[in-house]
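Side project, low priority. Logging it here so it doesn't get lost.
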Amino acid sequence: MQKLRLKYSGFSVTCGTHNYQMNIAILSTSELLYSTQSLVAAAEKRNHDVEVIDPTYCNVLIENNKVLLQYHNEVINDIDAIIPRIGVLNTYFGTSILRHFEAMDVYTAASSLGISQSRDKWISFQLMAKAGLPLPKTTLGSPAYLKDFLKDFGNGQVIIKILEGTHGNGVILCENYTNALSTVETLQGLRTRFVMQEFIAESRGTDIRAIVVGNKVIAAMKRSSKDNDFRSNLHQGGSATTYLLSDREREVAIGAAKALQLDVCGVDILQSKRGPLILEVNSTPGLEGIETASGISVAGAIIEYVEKTASLNIP
Protein backbone atom coordinates (compact mmCIF):
# COMPACT_ATOMS: atom_id res chain seq x y z
CA MET A 1 0.00 0.00 0.00
CA GLN A 2 1.39 3.40 -0.98
CA LYS A 3 1.99 5.78 1.90
CA LEU A 4 0.90 9.39 1.61
CA ARG A 5 3.24 12.30 2.11
CA LEU A 6 2.20 13.49 5.56
CA LYS A 7 3.06 16.98 6.77
CA TYR A 8 2.70 18.37 10.27
CA SER A 9 1.97 22.08 9.86
CA GLY A 10 3.00 24.98 12.03
CA PHE A 11 3.04 28.76 11.71
CA SER A 12 5.64 31.24 10.53
CA VAL A 13 8.61 32.08 12.75
CA THR A 14 11.04 34.97 12.68
CA CYS A 15 14.63 34.32 11.52
CA GLY A 16 16.63 37.53 11.55
CA THR A 17 14.43 40.21 9.97
CA HIS A 18 12.31 37.80 7.88
CA ASN A 19 9.44 35.48 8.71
CA TYR A 20 9.98 31.88 7.69
CA GLN A 21 7.93 28.76 8.05
CA MET A 22 10.59 26.19 7.39
CA ASN A 23 9.90 22.85 5.75
CA ILE A 24 11.89 20.31 7.78
CA ALA A 25 12.06 16.66 6.77
CA ILE A 26 13.13 13.85 9.08
CA LEU A 27 14.62 10.97 7.13
CA SER A 28 13.37 7.95 9.10
CA THR A 29 11.93 4.51 8.35
CA SER A 30 9.24 4.93 11.01
CA GLU A 31 7.33 7.88 12.41
CA LEU A 32 6.62 5.72 15.51
CA LEU A 33 10.23 5.66 16.75
CA TYR A 34 10.87 7.71 19.89
CA SER A 35 13.61 9.84 18.32
CA THR A 36 11.49 10.60 15.26
CA GLN A 37 8.46 11.51 17.36
CA SER A 38 10.56 13.72 19.63
CA LEU A 39 11.98 15.64 16.66
CA VAL A 40 8.53 16.05 15.09
CA ALA A 41 7.12 17.38 18.36
CA ALA A 42 10.04 19.79 18.80
CA ALA A 43 9.68 21.13 15.24
CA GLU A 44 5.93 21.58 15.67
CA LYS A 45 6.52 23.38 18.96
CA ARG A 46 8.69 25.89 17.11
CA ASN A 47 5.94 26.22 14.47
CA HIS A 48 7.69 24.66 11.49
CA ASP A 49 6.21 22.42 8.84
CA VAL A 50 7.70 18.97 9.44
CA GLU A 51 7.30 15.65 7.70
CA VAL A 52 8.78 12.18 8.02
CA ILE A 53 10.26 10.80 4.80
CA ASP A 54 10.87 7.07 4.69
CA PRO A 55 14.06 6.58 2.63
CA THR A 56 12.87 3.17 1.44
CA TYR A 57 10.12 4.92 -0.56
CA CYS A 58 12.47 7.44 -2.18
CA ASN A 59 13.69 7.31 -5.75
CA VAL A 60 16.80 9.27 -6.73
CA LEU A 61 17.63 9.98 -10.35
CA ILE A 62 19.67 12.24 -12.59
CA GLU A 63 17.92 13.71 -15.61
CA ASN A 64 18.93 16.53 -17.95
CA ASN A 65 22.09 17.04 -15.90
CA LYS A 66 20.07 17.67 -12.74
CA VAL A 67 19.40 15.63 -9.62
CA LEU A 68 15.78 14.73 -8.93
CA LEU A 69 14.28 13.08 -5.88
CA GLN A 70 10.86 11.47 -5.79
CA TYR A 71 8.88 10.29 -2.79
CA HIS A 72 5.96 8.03 -3.78
CA ASN A 73 6.28 9.37 -7.34
CA GLU A 74 6.03 12.97 -6.14
CA VAL A 75 9.00 15.22 -6.89
CA ILE A 76 10.40 16.70 -3.68
CA ASN A 77 11.79 20.22 -4.13
CA ASP A 78 10.36 22.17 -1.19
CA ILE A 79 12.57 21.05 1.73
CA ASP A 80 14.65 23.58 3.66
CA ALA A 81 16.43 21.17 6.01
CA ILE A 82 16.93 17.45 6.54
CA ILE A 83 17.47 15.67 9.84
CA PRO A 84 18.72 12.17 8.93
CA ARG A 85 17.86 9.17 11.10
CA ILE A 86 19.54 6.54 8.93
CA GLY A 87 19.98 3.03 10.33
CA VAL A 88 23.20 1.08 9.81
CA LEU A 89 21.55 -1.32 7.35
CA ASN A 90 20.42 1.64 5.23
CA THR A 91 23.73 3.52 5.23
CA TYR A 92 24.52 3.22 1.52
CA PHE A 93 21.09 4.14 0.15
CA GLY A 94 20.38 6.62 2.93
CA THR A 95 23.57 8.58 2.32
CA SER A 96 22.87 8.47 -1.42
CA ILE A 97 19.56 10.21 -0.74
CA LEU A 98 21.32 12.76 1.45
CA ARG A 99 23.83 13.52 -1.32
CA HIS A 100 20.86 14.26 -3.57
CA PHE A 101 19.48 16.75 -1.06
CA GLU A 102 22.96 18.25 -0.65
CA ALA A 103 23.20 18.64 -4.44
CA MET A 104 19.90 20.54 -4.20
CA ASP A 105 21.54 22.85 -1.61
CA VAL A 106 19.36 21.54 1.21
CA TYR A 107 20.96 21.74 4.65
CA THR A 108 21.37 18.40 6.46
CA ALA A 109 22.12 18.09 10.19
CA ALA A 110 24.51 15.23 9.49
CA SER A 111 26.26 15.27 6.13
CA SER A 112 26.38 12.21 3.89
CA LEU A 113 30.18 12.23 4.19
CA GLY A 114 30.04 12.53 7.97
CA ILE A 115 27.64 9.60 8.29
CA SER A 116 29.69 7.40 5.95
CA GLN A 117 32.90 8.20 7.83
CA SER A 118 31.38 7.57 11.26
CA ARG A 119 29.82 4.25 10.24
CA ASP A 120 33.22 2.73 9.42
CA LYS A 121 34.99 2.51 12.78
CA TRP A 122 38.48 2.37 11.29
CA ILE A 123 37.97 5.42 9.06
CA SER A 124 36.56 7.33 12.02
CA PHE A 125 39.59 6.37 14.17
CA GLN A 126 41.96 7.48 11.42
CA LEU A 127 40.29 10.88 11.09
CA MET A 128 40.20 11.43 14.84
CA ALA A 129 43.83 10.39 15.17
CA LYS A 130 44.71 12.91 12.46
CA ALA A 131 42.99 15.55 14.58
CA GLY A 132 45.12 14.53 17.57
CA LEU A 133 42.21 13.21 19.64
CA PRO A 134 42.76 10.58 22.37
CA LEU A 135 41.86 7.02 21.34
CA PRO A 136 42.42 3.50 22.69
CA LYS A 137 45.22 1.58 20.98
CA THR A 138 43.60 0.18 17.83
CA THR A 139 44.72 -1.80 14.79
CA LEU A 140 42.94 -2.82 11.60
CA GLY A 141 42.39 -6.56 11.21
CA SER A 142 44.75 -7.05 8.28
CA PRO A 143 45.14 -10.58 6.79
CA ALA A 144 48.93 -10.22 6.89
CA TYR A 145 50.91 -10.29 10.13
CA LEU A 146 47.76 -10.88 12.16
CA LYS A 147 49.57 -12.91 14.83
CA ASP A 148 52.21 -10.22 15.21
CA PHE A 149 49.58 -7.50 15.56
CA LEU A 150 47.80 -9.48 18.26
CA LYS A 151 51.05 -9.94 20.15
CA ASP A 152 51.24 -6.17 20.49
CA PHE A 153 48.28 -6.42 22.87
CA GLY A 154 50.04 -8.98 25.08
CA ASN A 155 48.26 -12.03 26.47
CA GLY A 156 45.56 -10.10 28.29
CA GLN A 157 42.05 -9.11 27.25
CA VAL A 158 41.45 -7.53 23.85
CA ILE A 159 38.36 -6.11 22.17
CA ILE A 160 37.38 -7.18 18.65
CA LYS A 161 34.96 -4.87 16.84
CA ILE A 162 33.20 -5.46 13.54
CA LEU A 163 33.61 -2.26 11.55
CA GLU A 164 29.94 -1.49 11.05
CA GLY A 165 28.39 -2.86 14.24
CA THR A 166 26.02 -0.76 16.37
CA HIS A 167 24.22 -0.77 19.75
CA GLY A 168 27.01 -2.96 21.15
CA ASN A 169 26.45 -5.70 18.59
CA GLY A 170 29.55 -6.97 16.83
CA VAL A 171 31.77 -6.19 19.85
CA ILE A 172 33.61 -9.17 21.31
CA LEU A 173 35.71 -9.33 24.47
CA CYS A 174 38.48 -11.93 24.13
CA GLU A 175 40.09 -13.06 27.38
CA ASN A 176 43.55 -13.89 26.04
CA TYR A 177 45.75 -14.16 22.94
CA THR A 178 44.59 -17.68 22.05
CA ASN A 179 40.92 -16.75 22.29
CA ALA A 180 41.49 -13.56 20.26
CA LEU A 181 43.40 -15.38 17.53
CA SER A 182 40.63 -17.96 17.16
CA THR A 183 38.02 -15.18 16.94
CA VAL A 184 39.81 -13.09 14.33
CA GLU A 185 40.63 -16.13 12.20
CA THR A 186 36.92 -16.98 12.18
CA LEU A 187 36.02 -13.42 11.18
CA GLN A 188 38.60 -13.47 8.41
CA GLY A 189 37.18 -16.75 7.14
CA LEU A 190 33.79 -15.02 6.93
CA ARG A 191 35.40 -12.05 5.13
CA THR A 192 34.22 -9.76 7.93
CA ARG A 193 36.16 -6.54 8.46
CA PHE A 194 37.14 -5.72 12.03
CA VAL A 195 39.50 -3.84 14.30
CA MET A 196 41.36 -4.96 17.42
CA GLN A 197 41.43 -2.63 20.37
CA GLU A 198 42.93 -2.54 23.84
CA PHE A 199 40.61 -3.35 26.74
CA ILE A 200 40.30 -0.47 29.22
CA ALA A 201 39.77 -2.43 32.42
CA GLU A 202 39.45 0.61 34.69
CA SER A 203 36.29 1.77 32.86
CA ARG A 204 34.50 -1.15 34.61
CA GLY A 205 31.69 -1.45 32.09
CA THR A 206 30.83 2.25 32.04
CA ASP A 207 31.15 4.97 29.44
CA ILE A 208 29.92 8.49 28.77
CA ARG A 209 27.60 9.50 25.94
CA ALA A 210 27.80 13.18 25.04
CA ILE A 211 25.42 14.74 22.51
CA VAL A 212 27.05 17.44 20.40
CA VAL A 213 24.92 19.94 18.49
CA GLY A 214 26.92 22.51 16.56
CA ASN A 215 29.92 23.39 18.70
CA LYS A 216 28.21 22.64 22.01
CA VAL A 217 27.58 19.60 24.18
CA ILE A 218 23.84 19.72 24.84
CA ALA A 219 23.56 16.81 27.26
CA ALA A 220 25.60 13.93 28.63
CA MET A 221 24.93 10.71 30.52
CA LYS A 222 26.98 7.98 32.14
CA ARG A 223 25.98 4.48 31.04
CA SER A 224 26.63 1.41 33.16
CA SER A 225 26.53 -2.20 32.04
CA LYS A 226 24.15 -4.86 33.32
CA ASP A 227 25.26 -8.08 35.05
CA ASN A 228 29.01 -7.47 34.52
CA ASP A 229 28.60 -7.07 30.76
CA PHE A 230 31.56 -5.02 29.47
CA ARG A 231 29.22 -3.22 27.05
CA SER A 232 27.36 -0.28 28.55
CA ASN A 233 24.90 0.29 25.67
CA LEU A 234 21.31 0.83 26.75
CA HIS A 235 20.24 -1.58 23.99
CA GLN A 236 22.19 -4.26 25.88
CA GLY A 237 20.26 -3.62 29.09
CA GLY A 238 22.53 -0.98 30.59
CA SER A 239 21.35 1.91 32.76
CA ALA A 240 22.00 5.63 32.48
CA THR A 241 22.26 8.66 34.77
CA THR A 242 22.84 12.31 33.96
CA TYR A 243 26.50 13.35 33.92
CA LEU A 244 28.44 16.61 34.03
CA LEU A 245 31.41 16.51 31.67
CA SER A 246 34.83 17.73 32.67
CA ASP A 247 36.37 20.47 30.53
CA ARG A 248 38.63 17.92 28.84
CA GLU A 249 35.77 15.51 28.13
CA ARG A 250 33.75 18.36 26.62
CA GLU A 251 36.73 19.40 24.48
CA VAL A 252 37.22 15.82 23.26
CA ALA A 253 33.54 15.38 22.36
CA ILE A 254 33.39 18.60 20.35
CA GLY A 255 36.69 17.73 18.66
CA ALA A 256 35.34 14.35 17.55
CA ALA A 257 32.27 15.96 15.98
CA LYS A 258 34.48 18.42 14.10
CA ALA A 259 36.89 15.71 12.92
CA LEU A 260 34.02 13.73 11.38
CA GLN A 261 32.21 16.80 10.03
CA LEU A 262 29.01 16.14 11.97
CA ASP A 263 26.82 18.99 13.21
CA VAL A 264 24.80 16.56 15.33
CA CYS A 265 26.20 13.37 16.84
CA GLY A 266 26.70 11.28 19.94
CA VAL A 267 30.26 10.78 21.18
CA ASP A 268 31.04 7.81 23.43
CA ILE A 269 33.94 8.34 25.83
CA LEU A 270 35.79 5.96 28.13
CA GLN A 271 37.40 7.17 31.34
CA SER A 272 40.91 5.74 31.61
CA LYS A 273 44.06 6.22 33.70
CA ARG A 274 45.46 8.43 30.96
CA GLY A 275 42.33 10.56 30.61
CA PRO A 276 39.23 10.41 28.37
CA LEU A 277 39.43 8.15 25.32
CA ILE A 278 36.97 8.28 22.43
CA LEU A 279 35.26 4.96 21.96
CA GLU A 280 32.92 5.72 19.07
CA VAL A 281 30.97 8.47 17.30
CA ASN A 282 27.31 7.91 16.40
CA SER A 283 25.95 10.07 13.59
CA THR A 284 22.30 9.31 14.45
CA PRO A 285 22.25 8.89 18.23
CA GLY A 286 19.08 7.68 19.90
CA LEU A 287 17.30 10.37 21.91
CA GLU A 288 15.17 8.40 24.36
CA GLY A 289 17.97 7.42 26.75
CA ILE A 290 19.66 10.81 26.84
CA GLU A 291 16.44 12.80 27.15
CA THR A 292 15.15 10.52 29.91
CA ALA A 293 18.42 10.54 31.86
CA SER A 294 19.19 14.25 31.52
CA GLY A 295 15.70 15.76 31.40
CA ILE A 296 16.92 17.92 28.51
CA SER A 297 15.05 18.23 25.22
CA VAL A 298 17.87 17.25 22.89
CA ALA A 299 15.38 17.21 20.01
CA GLY A 300 14.50 20.83 20.80
CA ALA A 301 18.18 21.81 20.72
CA ILE A 302 18.61 20.06 17.36
CA ILE A 303 15.60 21.85 15.86
CA GLU A 304 16.84 25.23 17.13
CA TYR A 305 20.27 24.63 15.64
CA VAL A 306 18.83 23.43 12.31
CA GLU A 307 16.52 26.46 12.25
CA LYS A 308 19.39 28.92 12.70
CA THR A 309 21.80 27.14 10.35
CA ALA A 310 19.41 26.29 7.53
CA SER A 311 17.89 29.79 7.55
CA LEU A 312 21.23 31.12 6.30
CA ASN A 313 20.57 29.26 3.02
CA ILE A 314 17.03 30.63 2.60
CA PRO A 315 16.98 33.61 0.21
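Brief comment: The longest strand covers residues 216-224.
Revisit when time allows.
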